[in-house]
Design a protein that fits this description.
The protein is of the alpha+beta class and 99 residues long. It is built from 3 helices and 2 strands.
């Protein structure tokens, strides 16, 4: 998938379709938010022009979402309030919504 902001919508559609097919409709809203934040992070920080979205179901009770962006830097979760800035909170949302 191209590394552009619009890729988040395509990723959300993929996640929604996969979770619906697996009968996991109750997870769709949180999973769509998580994949949006992961794609947004990759769009802002990746080094290649493309990213890969991963949606798997390794077991009956476990859904794995991921974005492969080939960045050499490990994403850092901000722990400060970051003032009035609305950017930089995506990984906090991911942490709050995932195991």
């Amino acid at each position: 998938m191209r590394r552009v902001p619009e890729s988040a919508e395509a990723a959300r559609k993929l996640v929604r379709a996969a979770l619906a097919a697996w009968g996991q409709e109750d997870l769709i809203d949180d999973a769509a938010l998580v994949i949006s934040e992961l794609v947004s992070n990759a769009v802002n920080h990746a080094r290649l022009e493309s990213i890969r979205v991963v949606v798997t179901r390794p077991s009956e009770n476990f859904i794995r979402l991921g974005v492969v962006d080939r960045s050499r830097s490990v994403p850092l979760m901000r722990t400060d309030s970051n003032g009035d800035n609305t950017r930089g909170r995506g990984l906090l949302l991911v942490e709050a919504l995932t195991d």
